[in-house]
Amino acid sequence: MGPLLLVLLLALILFGVGFAVKILWWVAIIVLVVWLLGFVMRSGSGGGRSRWYRW
């Protein structure tokens, strides 16, 4: 009974990690799109070195 519970716990942990990694991939893709849009949207208002973000 103990090894079966250990295998089930390991499967649950790996499923959770896989789900978290998939969500992180989607977050990374969204951040990349926003970052690329920042280069497109920064048309030269206020000089050539204007930035669309504050930092």
Automatic annotation (TrEMBL):
<keyword id="KW-0472">Membrane</keyword>
<protein>
    <submittedName>
        <fullName>Hydrophobic protein</fullName>
    </submittedName>
</protein>
<keyword id="KW-0812">Transmembrane</keyword>
<feature type="transmembrane region" description="Helical">
    <location>
        <begin position="30"/>
        <end position="48"/>
    </location>
</feature>
<keyword id="KW-1133">Transmembrane helix</keyword>
